[in-house]
Write a structure and sequence with these properties.
The chain is of the alpha+beta class and 470 residues long. It is 37% helix and 15% strand. The protein contains 17 helices and 17 strands.
Length: 470
């Protein structure tokens, strides 16, 4: 029986009400479901993971709901490693890879089944189907995912009864599952590392999902330009809401908190309050991405003149960032070091900062000492996929110290940020921030810019804004 609310209006359930609620429900089992497009790709990913851990049991939880306030929870977002390996998005689930004698694994997806109509939980439970919506039955999930599915409520007993093979679990996702197994923190971290490693190179299906995410994001940016006058009349919140509407219409949500930064807020790397004024004459830095229904996200930034025309100084700064991005993108190709695009963009910005006399040269010395970082702040990009900063736990030798391969997806996003209180630069420079960010996939002979549908040069941006904003 569900926990009774302290201030609930109905303290008791009569036997007559219970009987009424349990009767008269149609059979809604869906027998014609087919495996998703992702299912065969997820099977290949599980096979790749299996080869890394022969003879070991692997437990990958999907995660649980998190409380926002009192009995209100945040929207659920499953652990990306679970999504990648199972092709699924359920809460309170787990993928278990059980070792076989031949060194391979049998995979089982544990999930909450549909609520039984034989007790009152289906309408009184805290997360009952009658309150939160119909779940798939286990049989339905088996057809959709293409792998055996079991009741998550048996997983603890199943793990206890399994063979004595060593077990690894992804920690921090499901405390009850962690408590059910005996593992080692260092070995568990190696499992999470492997799950990140296996996402470094995207398969064809994943690249297709990223393409959808970017295409929706392009439309979201165009929506914002068309509603800039309403943002001027209100605040950055109008921009946030405008983009969010597109994300919800065409995808799951936004892939991360949208940065809708006008004026001096554009100098704050992760400005998400989005409550400031939008003034003609200022720049708007919009960093946002649509997350698809399959949870792959775009990550694009454009910096726009609110009134449609760059001032000479704004254009000078913008052009410097654009040229740096061009240099960085030219370095994205198979066989190049991951660091190459970052170094190419940063060296260009260092040269401009020396030219403007904001840092002391020569350029090589300034770059060696990292002096440009006062004004460039962050690295020039990151991997992209199920997470906006994808593959974050991957081995350094495969990621930041690695070499680019076809199928890797990453952002190139140089920027310059002159803080409003920085007295080392002329007053007219203070409070100006510019970033340009695009999403690239490494190809056999170079790269493809997935976000090419958005203008990048200053002239193109101005023409685009005339077309859509007037």
């Amino acid at each position: 029986m569900a926990k009774r609310r302290k201030n609930g209006l109905y303290p008791e359930i009569s036997a007559e009400l219970s009987a009424l609620m349990r009767s008269g429900w149609a059979n809604t089992e869906r027998n014609n479901l087919q495996p998703t497009e992702q299912a065969p790709y997820a099977a290949r990913r599980r096979a790749a993971l299996s080869t890394r851990f022969p003879g070991e049991r692997l437990v990958i939880p999907s995660g649980n709901l998190k409380v926002r306030s009192n009995d209100d929870t945040y929207p659920f977002r499953p652990y990306s490693g679970y999504v990648h390996m199972a092709g699924d998005k359920v809460r309170d689930g787990a993928l278990v890879l059980e070792p076989r004698a031949d060194g391979g694994h049998d995979a089982y997806c544990y999930q909450l089944p549909r609520d039984s109509r034989d007790d009152d939980e289906f309408w009184t439970g805290a997360h009952a189907e009658l309150w939160t919506g119909r779940r798939r039955s286990l049989a339905e999930s088996e057809r959709v995912l293409g792998l055996p599915c079991r009741d998550i409520r048996t997983v603890v007993a199943d793990l206890a009864a399994a063979s004595g093979a060593p077990t690894r679990i992804v920690r921090g996702m499901d405390p009850s599952l962690e408590a059910a197994v005996t593992t080692d923190a260092e070995r568990d971290a190696e499992l999470e590392e492997a799950l990140s490693d296996l996402r470094l190179v995207k398969d064809a299906w994943e690249i297709g999902e990223l393409r959808k995410a970017v295409d929706s994001t392009v439309r979201g940016f165009t929506d914002v330009v068309g509603e800039l006058s309403r943002a001027v009349a209100s605040s950055e919140r109008w921009i946030e809401g405008t983009f969010f509407r597109r994300a919800r219409l065409e995808g799951n949500a936004v892939g991360y908190g949208s940065i809708c930064a006008a004026g001096e807020h554009a100098t704050i790397m992760h400005w998400t309050e989005n409550d400031g004024p939008v003034r003609p004459g200022d720049l708007l830095l919009l960093d946002a991405g649509v997350e698809t229904h399959s949870l792959y996200t775009a990550d694009v930034t454009r910096t726009l003149p609110v009134n449609g025309i760059f001032t000479p100084l704004q254009r000078e700064i913008y052009d410097a960032v654009y040229e740096a991005q061009e240099a960085g993108m030219a370095a994205v190709k198979p066989g190049a070091r991951y660091r190459d695009f970052h170094e190419a963009a940063q060296r260009h910005l260092t040269a401009r900062l020396v030219e403007w006399r904001f840092i002391d040269g020569p350029v090589d010395r300034a770059y060696e000492l990292g002096l440009q970082r006062r004004f460039t702040m962050a690295g020039t990009g990151h991997m992209l996929g199920l997470d906006v900063h994808d593959c974050a736990q991957a081995r350094m030798e495969g990621y930041v110290d690695g070499v680019l391969e076809p199928g890797m997806c990453l952002t190139v996003e140089p920027g310059l940020y002159f803080q409003a209180d920085d007295v080392t630069v002329p007053e007219e420079w203070r409070g100006i921030g510019v970033r340009i960010e695009d999403d690239l996939v490494v190809t056999e002979d170079g790269h493809e810019n997935l976000s090419v549908g958005l203008p990048r040069t200053a002239d193109e941006v101005e023409a685009w804004m005339v077309r859509f904003a007037g």
